[in-house]
Amino acid sequence: MEKPWRLWGSVERCALALASWSWGACRISLLALILTFHLYGGFFLLALILASVAAILYKFQDVLLYFPDQPSSSRLYVAMPTGIPHENVYIRTKDGVRLNLILLRYTGGDSNIGHRVPNALLMLVNLKANVVLVDYRGYGKSEGEPSEDGLYLDAQATLDYVMTRPDLDKTKVMVFGRSLGGAVAVRLASANPHRVAAIVVENTFLSIPHMAATLFSFLPMRLLPLWFYRNQFLSYRQVALCRMPSLFVSGLSDQLIPPVMMKQLYELSPARTKRLAIFSEGTHNDTWQCQGYFAALEQFVKDLMNSHTREESVQSTASVTII
């Protein structure tokens, strides 16, 4: 039985490679195809033109979704926190990509930092939590190029690394994601239900096909099959597998992702402990600056810590670790 499966796998890879090469050839020769069709017409040439346009749109999806070069210096300089215990670490994913991550350590007491510090440092101080920041492949000092499967591997490698640390409590790992990171967080939590204690997602979407239908409502995007999308990020399916405590943070002034998608994700969640925190003035990337934002996260973390204390029947002093 093993040989037929291997044979089928080889045939499938060859077919995909041939299809990819043909698609690329059509894309390169699009102008020539259009001129030839204009002169001679023909159904076959029209089909090749449509295939070429589809190939261009398929490839262009990455440009709309990933922005590894913004700001322009982001690939050359990654700011390091000062005055906070931290570690700059490099890890490798299962497919061999080298990633850069920063571990911010909470050591107790009050930290003397101002209101201008980045979001992550405010999490450390307000939530009294360790914070792990990872540059996805293609971002910052990490190698590779971003892709949906690649980002999933990056998140998994980060979680695996945290689980190897003897100084971090493996039972108190909370996954956080904003925007595209929310989709990655949902996928990571769904694939690791016994390793992720809680999940927080902020201003994220149901899926890329849902976003395409919203952004290009003047086109029949809903009629396109899933395989048309190079990146799918089907969070509306994955969230149904996330039964751990879940917090959904929604900024109602988000001009990029419709806030109704956050409400729908909340409603799709099967978690027994789940909350929907709404901030009327919250925008896509700046909801964390709204009044009451950290109070909502702090209460969620406190409830999580209390539930662990009851289960363990002992008082634990270990901090939550946020990925």
From TrEMBL:
The molecular function terms in GO held by this entry are:
palmitoyl-(protein) hydrolase activity
Entry's InterPro entries? AB_hydrolase_1, AB_hydrolase_fold
Entries under SUPFAM superfamilies matching the protein: alpha/beta-Hydrolases
Which residues constitute the signal peptide according to the record? none
- The yes or no answer to whether the keyword Transmembrane helix is present is yes
Keyword entries, A-Z:
Membrane, Transmembrane, Transmembrane helix
**GO CC list:** membrane
Membrane-crossing residues?
37-58
All residue ranges annotated as the AB hydrolase-1 domain in the record:
124-233
> What family is this protein classified in?
Belongs to the serine esterase family.
The entry's protein name is Protein ABHD13
Q: What is the lineage of its organism?
A: Eukaryota, Metazoa, Chordata, Craniata, Vertebrata
